[in-house]
Amino acid sequence: MDSKIISPAVIGRLPRYYRYLGDLKDEGVERISSQELSELMKVTASQIRQDFNNFGGFGQQGYGYNVEYLYNEIGKLLGLHENHHLIIIGAGNLGRALTNYSNFENRGFIFEGIFDQNPALIGKKIGELTVMPMEEIESFILAHSIDIVVIAIPKTGAVAVADRVVNCGIKAIWNFAHTDLNVPDGVVVENVHLSDSLMKLSYTLSTKNNSVD
User: Fold this and answer.
1) What pLDDT score was predicted for residue 60?
2) C or N: which end of the chain has fewer Cβ atoms within 10 Å?
3) Exposure of 88 by Cβ count < 10 A (0-12 exposed, 13-18 middle, 19+ buried)?
4) Between the CA of residue 194 and those of 90, 186, 197, 198, 199, what are the distances in Å?
């Protein structure tokens, strides 16, 4: 496949395709058309075909899509054919919830360590992990070939932590801190601002309510 620039909107839809196809595969569905997938996902069939054509199409005229094949191919596009090793910075409520969410490991995201600066948390067990002190972050990253760092601490400490892990060679950060990180080119940051999502929901709810009045 020729290298081409894929729009963020298309990339953003890939995990949803993957999730729906996984459910279909588990249900024993072997083949599906773009129209049938459209009806399930509430995305137009033409949008689905356009999205898949960015990666070669995957389907056959008059046949549709082989569900298992498409599921596996999208998994490869998402990098799910290999394991990724992560650490979490922050052993508070969010860090604990992320650590205990088993579906991450099913997708190949393996949490190797969790760190916190609170002395009361050091040595505590969270699932299979033991909370370690912040001073050990750099040595742990280098010793365990960590791919992704999850930042789940308040924004006051997030920038300094991001600088530390980037200096260790980390190229991917999943950022839950309510601040934007200024990282060098070549480092990918996925920001998850939970309050932003809730405010979008509030806006939609408010708009609907106002339209009824």
Assistant:
1) 67
2) C
3) buried
4) 16, 25, 5, 6, 9
- Please work out, in degrees rounded to the nearest 5, the angle formed at the alpha carbon of residue 196 by the alpha carbons of 75 and 188: 45
Distances (CA, A) of 200 to 94, 96, 152, 204: 21, 26, 21, 6
Mean pLDDT of 23-43: 95
Residue 2 has pLDDT above 80, yes or no: no
CA–CA distance, 85 with 172 (Å, rounded to integer): 11
Beta-carbon-side half-sphere exposure of residue 181 (alpha carbons within 13 Å): 32
Phi-psi region for residue 39, left (φ > 0), alpha (ψ -120 to 50) or beta? alpha
Kindly state the tokens that stand for 20: 């729906």
User: What is the three-class DSSP state of 113?
Assistant: strand
Domains belonging to the chain, first-starting first, are 8-77 (1.10.10.10), 84-196 (3.40.50.720)
Banded pLDDT at 213 (limits 50, 70, 90): low
In this prediction, residue 58 has a pLDDT band, given cuts at 50, 70 and 90, of confident
**64 in Cβ contact with 33 (< 8 Å):** yes
Going by the DSSP 8-state scheme, the letter that residue 80 receives in this structure is T
What pLDDT shows up at residue 212? Answer: 61
Indicate if the pLDDT at residue 117 is higher than 80: yes
